[in-house]
Amino acid sequence: MFLLLAAGLWIIAGFLLASVEEYKAETGGGGNAMSEAFKNLSLLRDDALFRHFVITRALLLCSALAFFALSIAHAGV
After folding, report:
1. Is the pTM of this model over 0.85?
2. Mean pLDDT of 14-33
3. What percent of the chain has pLDDT over 70?
4. Alpha-carbon distance 1 to 13, whole Å?
5. Buried b (16+ CB within 10 A) or exposed e, 47-76
6. Please, are residues 41 and 47 in contact by the beta-carbon 8 Å criterion?
7. Do the record's keywords include Membrane (predicted)?
8. Of 20, 25, 44, 50, which cross-links 30 as Cys (Cβ 3.0–4.6 Å)?
């Protein structure tokens, strides 16, 4: 039950944060974060070292989350 509540709150927070209007920044025009991220996806294709860093970090994050989930399940919380 708490997991469903947490998932629902994450979804609501995602929609709320996506609706925030961003103002132009002093350093680079302050574009929308999602559109800027999609424009820079070529970094993952072109820069092998950065691509390996992102993949490694994502895999470490997944394994850490699995460890915490298993620890909580084992503790019976």
Report:
1. no
2. 74
3. 88
4. 18
5. eeeeeeeeeeeeeeeeeeeeeeeeeeeeee
6. no
7. yes
8. 25
The tokens describing 58, both together, are 């994502």
Which amino acid, 44?
L
Contacts of 50 (CB under 8 A, 6+ apart): 43, 44
> Between residues 35 and 48, which one has the greater pLDDT?
48
Token pair recorded at residue 57: 């970090």
Q: For residues 67 and 53, what is the distance between their CA atoms, to the nearest angstrom?
A: 21
R_g (Cα) of the chain, nearest Å: 18
The rounded distance, in Å, linking the Cα atoms of 77 and 75 is: 6
CA separation for the pair 65, 39 (Å, rounded): 29
- Looking at the structure of the chain, the number of domains it has is 1
